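Final report, Chapter 2: Outcomes

The project's central promise was a pipeline that accepts a single protein chain and returns its three-dimensional structure in a standardized token representation, suitable for archiving and comparison. That pipeline is now operational. To close this chapter, we reproduce one record exactly as it appears in the project archive, with the input sequence first and the structure output second.
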Amino acid sequence: MVGFENHIGRISLSENFITELVRHAVCDCFGVADVCSVNTFRNAVSSLTHGKLFRRKGVVVHADKNGGITVNLHIKVTYGTNISAAVESITHKIIFTLEETADIKVNAVNVYVDEMNN
């Protein structure tokens, strides 16, 4: 959960809402074919005790104590796309979408290009 306070009161947004918001914003960007699935451990304890992986749809959100978030994004790009320009565009779009739609401070956006689509 990501929470913050404003003049209305305390607002909490679920990780699922933020993930879907980012995923929809990214799929509209030029050169992005899809968001790749990634395997992640739910937390450090479960990775040590159960070794269980959770599949996520390519967007992993980490919230800090100050209400800001870090977004890790795994994408598939189309062949011939200028990757550095696409990543810069994606980063700006994610920051704009989260700050304008949900009033969330974005600390960092990490974009990982996992695949290339022909």
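Archive annotation: The chain has a mean pLDDT of 80.
This record, like all others produced under the grant, will remain available to the consortium after the project formally closes.
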